[in-house]
Amino acid sequence: MSEERSFEELQRELDDVVARLERGDVPVDEAIALFRRGEELYRACVERLQAAELRIEELSPTDAPTA
Amino acid sequence: MTVEPAAQTERKVYSVSGFNRGIARTLGKLPAVWVEGEVTELRRNAGWATVFLTLKDPRTGATLNVTIARRTFDRLGLELEKGETVHVAGRAELWEQQGELVLRATTVERLGVGAHLVALEQLKRRLAEEGLFAVARKRRLPRVPRAVGVLTGADAAARGDVIATVGRRFPATKVVVCETRVQGRGAPESIVAALRCLGSHAEVDVVVLARGGGSFEDLLPFSSEPVVRAVAACPVPVVSAVGHEQDTPLCDLAADARAATPTAAGALVVPDEQELRAALEGSRRRLGLAIRTLLDRDTARLARTGDRLHAAPRLLLERRRAALDRSGARLETLSPLATLGRGYAIVRAGGRALREAGAVSPGDALDVELASGKLGARVEEVVP
To answer: pLDDT, tens digit, for every residue of B146-161?
Structure first.
């Protein structure tokens, strides 16, 4: 599972996987692969929610690229 | 000193003083006017009779020197600062000694709310015509931002409200705070720089302008043209939470969403973690249910196929037998033996079936085949 994908993308893919499985027009091998992918996506999403505490970063406007 | 040209050949030549005085006199005939400008310099000294101001046209950079009697200036009690926009009433005047044009002021007014409103209305119309506030330009806020950028002043309340709300709803994110000067002189430039800073941050997916309430003048930087343009040009969506419900700074119109308070802005930019978890659990349940339904269906189909497979050999045999029976029946109807059964006989002469009487002569030997047994015979008579 690549780290740079956003939570939103992961959740959207999970929803897609569920929808495809629910349509039921996939061969059984593919269905099992889809199910595994779905589980993986679910776990990745839940992991993203595990952070215990809000992170805060202070930025100074002088860091801005002067243009 | 004289204004008259000194006669020298045929040329009219003025002395510098003469020229200056002449211009000064002409200028003195001009009517008193009001001039609007930004104060860029202010020199007041208790020992001087005059206060010196420099006004700048913010759009072109043109400058004008202004003088006003110190006593008059002090009586106004303005406590002017550099960067403020003022209206000055006065007449054009030339300082003859330096040939320098000044506006000799009789009064100075800090630009009032009314004048600001007119200027704002004009700017608003101009930017609207340009399409800067068009609904089509508004971007959808990310549902789950990697990081929330917060642009704030030294206003601890607004900043705290955003952070608290984000932290309560969705602690799995990050808040990037950029504190900057949001009111007074230089505020528009600071806000633009801070916006650029947040907009170019690698993780910031949405920016909140968190500025609590303030006086009309305090909130003016958020209506300045550079800030409004920077909001519209920000690479990520911007939520404006500037002022209170009743204020509508122009940055609100250029922002992608507006929140009445910093708390409301916090709720807009992140999802509720509980809801998100519930949605995820729901997805997982459906995932399990879908695969079970699919597998159950496949198992049933497999069982049916198995049954058919087992039944197949028997079916095949039966089908073959039926076909064989049918063939047998047909064969039987065609067989000459069946015809013989009905009382017909086959007559052969020399091993070949006899069809015409003329093919044999009396005395020839014949074989007669009956349904059962054969006869040897001889021809007695031929009737062709």
So the answer is: 899 999 998 778 899 9
